Every structure is written in structure tokens, then in C-alpha cells.
Queue: 4 jobs
Job 1
Amino acid sequence: MVHQQRESAFREWFESQRRWQDPRQLAREAGIPYNTLRGYLSGKAPGPANARRLWELTGFDGFPQGRGAEVTAREPQVRRMSLESRIALFRHLVEGLTLVMDSFHNGTRSERERLRAELRDEIARFHVLVRALASERARQMVIEEGGGRHGGNTGV
């Protein structure tokens, strides 16, 4: 069952994207043998290195060893950090976002439109999380609305 769901999700994602005309093109750009990528399109799970490579290149995070597992593994570490460390981490993230936004503003209109389209869900989630940081009332509303990562508590 998991095999079929994985096949369906990756195949559906591949058919909906417009960057790669065929799997051979994606395999070449990812540095993964074509037959290996075909296996992933058939539902086989990639190893951590290939899952990470595909996530970095495509943004597809449907493989359990890709970005999702890595983020989930870090959650307890962040929760144990001191307040000062979390503030420093937040500032670091804002600096990184500022650099991305500078390149966004200096990019072409079509690049900006593609970025907005591909990151629509993440932009909405980020907006909700920033609102929650702004006030205690907004934080409570986010929790009540289930605005967190997985529809639950955001930890903010």
C-alpha cells in the first residue's frame, strides 16, 4: 500500500511539474541513473542521499528519508534550545530569508511568478507563523485554527 501511495505521489508530482520534459532529463540533472529514477517512479523508496538530492532539486518531499524526516528529527533539538539560542536561530533564518528575498526582487517577473506558485503553501504557512510571533492573541488563534505544520500545535 505504501509502495502504491509513493508511486502515485511521485508520478503525480512529476506529471504536474513543467521543468523536466521526461524522467531522463530529471535523472541527468539530479545525477541519478535513469533506471534508478524509474524505480522511484514505480514506487521504490530512494535512499537518504537520493531523497535529499531530489528534494533539493525539485522541492518534492514525499519520500520519508528526504526533507520531512530531517525536519522532524530536529524538532526535539530545537525545543531543548535555550531562549537565547532560539532567538539567534530565528535571526539567522531571517537573514537567510532576506538574501532569498533580495534575489527574488532582482529576478525576472517569470521567476517571481514561478516562485510564488511553487511556494504558495509555504508562503501561507510562513505568514501564519509570523502573525503568531507578533502577538499572543494571534498565536492562540493559530493554535485553535490548527495552523501548524501538520494541522496541530506550531510550538509558537
Job 2
Amino acid sequence: MTVEPDVQSRTPARTFRTAVRMVAVRAGRRLAWALSLSAAGLGVAGQAPPRPSDTASLVRALDHSDWTVQQPALEALRERARTEPAALAALTQALRNRDWRVRQGAAWALGRLGPVAAPAVPALMDTLKDSDWLVRLGAVQALGQLGPTAVAAVGALIQARTEADPVVRAAADTVLKDLAEHVPSARETIERAIQPK
């Protein structure tokens, strides 16, 4: 006979993680991921997640198994990346993390940095080949947010238009049209690629 532990003896964070795991089993990992983002942003039981103070600690937090630890670390690295090259390098390296949520979060964070993240363009181009469509979508959107500094990615974005996922294809089309508008030197190549056949 199994005895259920007393619900009141559980910590709010443990109860939430248990609930997310149950949702993940029943509804799939995408819904569970969305729920964990909500909790990570708000904090569990009204408490903000801990935020390590140095870049090395933030990088170590990305390898933690709990998204509520990883997400604030990504956000803190994004905040530091504007002034600390090590933080920008850590976000770029996170595009190769074993956890798809970290890879997608790193792409999002790099996109939010805008042109400051220009050194990450080659890594974002590689991320367009990721096995997870949400990570590929994040990379396409990040390249779009980098604006003209992402012009080197035009070829990879054109290739992304052949992608199996329609959301990623549509995002690649949008980014290419935006680049064609803002980068005259790439306009002809892009227009040839996106013309209906």
C-alpha cells in the first residue's frame, strides 16, 4: 500500500514541480514548459528565484536540471552581455546546451540584445539546424531582431524556408523581407529567393 505524503509538508517549489511533471506526462512537454516559464518569471510562492552574482555562477546554473534556476540565469546573462563579453560568449555557448529550453532561451536572450549580439550570428545560423522546432524558431526570431547585423545569415534563412515546420518557415520569410527592406545589398538575393515559383 502506498501512502501519499502530506500535501502541506511539501514546499511550494516542490509542489509546483510535481504539478508541472504531471502536466508534462498528460499534455506534453510544450505546455509544461509554458507553465514553468510562468512560475520562473513570477517566482514560486511570491519569492523570486535566486540570482547568482557572478558570470561563472550563472553559466553553471544553465546546467542545472530545473528550469526555474536556468531561466533567471539566462536573463541575468542577457543583462550583463551588453557590457561583459564573457556573458555574451556564455549566451552564445548556451545555444549548444543539452536542454532545449536553455537553447531556446539563449536564442531569445541574444535576440533581445539586438545588434550587440552580432558576434553570435554564426552560432545562431548553426542553431537553425537544431533538432527542436522551438529552438529553430527562436534562432530565426533572434536573427530578425539583430537587424542588418544579421545579413550574413541570409543564406541560412533562405534555407530555413524549406523547413518542415510552417511556423519556422513563416518566421524566416518575415525576417528575410525585413532584411530586404533594410539591407539594399541583400535585396536582390532575397527577392529572388522569396518569389513564388
Job 3
Amino acid sequence: MAHSDQLLILDFDGVLCDSVGECCIVSARLLSRMYPEDNRPMPRTLEEVEPGLREHFFAHRLLIGPGADFETVVDAYRRGISVNTREELTDLVAQFDKECPRDPNAFYNERNLFRQDDMESWLALHTLYADVPERVAGLQQELPVFVVSNKDFLSLKLILAQQGIHIDDSAIFGKEVGLKKFPTIQKIAADQGRALNDIWYVDDHLGHLLEPHAAGVRCLHADWGYTTDADRQQAREENIRSLTLDEFGPAMLS
């Protein structure tokens, strides 16, 4: 390994995988479960999600962070509410939770139910970006690769295996770790005996890159994921290197 003294940490959604369809369907199923009196369907495909809800979800996807955001976005649709920024969505999450305390794991629990009910359909909803297995394999020839995500460990493990991406269980850090992204990066660095400036980190969510970047982590902003023009502009202002999908691979380590 040419970069064996370093290591690479990859986000999952928006870097390796486009799972927006799965997130939309799980969110729609959660809304149906939250309000059974509405007699909404339990969709298994995007086509089965009511068009208005589907459009509302896709319009808000770039604003969504952790699981509680998904529940808030679909509940807001039912109430006829839209937001335009991540800050507005954060405020709405707090408002809804104050009205009626929410289970922060409701979205993940709904995903688990869907996966248990129809594993084949659930797996089929995840699409890797172009040539991702080959890109990751090439990177693994250069340095150790880890995955850090807000997704649960089992989902990550199943999707990676089904798509032919071979990453050890010990190198997959899902939401069960109970830490935000930067503390997880710090944990991996400590466990692996690496300095922060020996770590490469790729994420499409600019907010996850700011603190690691300030601490010396070699951050790369994945501009093919769930990101906005405002994020790209801020990344430039913060001197965080932007990475295109074509550049995603061993050459990015230079």
C-alpha cells in the first residue's frame, strides 16, 4: 500500500450510494403508520408513493440529516408545511418534538420492518454511483478504508455485501456507535494509531467536514451527492477541496 501510513474514511449515502428512493419509501411508510386514520398505503416502490408526497420529499432531501429529519419532512407534508434551509428544518424538528415528543429511532425502526418484510425489494432500492465498487477496490490497494454513516450497521453491511464492496465489519461504523461524525473520526484515528492529518475523509454533507477540516483531517467534499451550490461555495471559502465522481479513486490521494 503506497499510503499505508494513512487511512480513508468514506461517508455512505451521497458518496457510495444513492438511497434517496429507499429513504422516500421508508418515510412514506412511517407517515402511514403515524396516521392510520388517513388510510395511506404502505408503498414498496416509488411509484406507489403518492405523487405529492414524493415531490415534497425529493424537494427537501438535500436538507435532511439524521433520521428524525425524515419523520419531520413527511409530517410537514401532511400539515402543508415546506422549509427552505437546513436551519428551518432543524427548528421544525424541535417544534414538532415540543408538540409531541418523537422517537428518534422511528425512521430506522420503519426501515427495519420493511427490510424484514421484503429484503429483496429493499435491497433493490439502493443504487451505487458509477463504478463505485471498482473505485473503492482501487483505493483499498492504497490504504485502509473505513465507512462512517448515520445509517444503521446492518443496512450498511447488507448493501455493501450485495454490491460487491468488501469492507470488514470492524471498519463499518453505523449509527449504533452513538457519536457524531468527527468524534467517530477521532475514535478511529486513536484506535488505529494515526494522527488526524494522516486521515482522508470524503463526505457530501459540508457540515460534517468543517470540524474535521479545522482539526487537520484531509477533507474532500463529494460534489456528486446530496449537496447544494451554497455548500460548494462555502467549501471553496473554507478551502475544502471539492471532489468530482470522476476524480473519486486512487488519484485523489495525490
Job 4
Amino acid sequence: MVHRDLKPSNVLLAEDGTAKIADFGLAKKLDAGAGQTRTGAVMGTPSYMAPEQADGKSKEVGPATDVYALGAILYECLTGRPPFKAATVMETLQQVMADDPVPPRQLQSRTAARSGDGLPEMSGEAAGPGATARRGNWRRSWDGSWPASRSGRGRSGRWGGW
């Protein structure tokens, strides 16, 4: 199942702090095959869409699309704004497809100064395999030192190692 419209208003917190996902109106069952969504249809909330979703490539929309939206929600939690927001829906969609978001440190330097790099200090088994690489990826993305993504792979290729 792919939600296809994850955004802050669709993530609810229970009294015990557990996150609950709401509003499955645009959800798509992955094993349903072709059908409900025609190619070229843009569905969801533009500020939280993955580039392939914003571009109407419905055949490319999958679990990574929801992971991207969760990253956009985290970005907003850290910075106070979504990664992309323009005056019109079409301009926002264009930003999602063509631009990189402003590094969070440039928008909220207090957050980075107060909490280091924003990552919990973990080591050994608790951190899991690849933790050092993920921390490096996070830092490069956070401070804007990651190489430009205009290589043709797009942001999905750039962020896909997380």
C-alpha cells in the first residue's frame, strides 16, 4: 500500500505519542496491477510530493514516494516550512521536479547549534549497519555540501542511499 498524500495534517499523534496515519483517500494497493490511476494524473499535496509523483509518473510511484513525503514532513518539523512552497500549485510542482530544497541549516541555524547535527549519538549494534555512511549523508545534506544532483539521476538517486 502506498499512501500518496502523506503530509503533517495526515499524521496524527495518539495520547501515548504513537504516530497514526490518516486519510487513505489517495492510497494505492501495490499488488492491484494497472487500473485506478492513469499515467499523467498528479495526485497529492505538492509540497510533500516526490519528483516522480509531481511529474505524473504514476507507474514510478511506490513505497519510496511515501518515504520521500516523510522526509518532507521531517524537513518541515526542523525548519518550520515545507521543502517546496510557491505562490501557485504549478510553481510548487515545478520546484519539486527541478530544484533542491534549501539546506535546513540555512533556515534554522539555531536548531543545528542547539542539537549538534540533529542525529542521536549511536554506535555499535544500536546504530545498525551503514550508520556511519548515513550520518555522513545526513550531514552533507544538512549543511548543503552534497554534490549537485543535476547529473540526470534526480533527487531520488541522490537521496536513495539513506
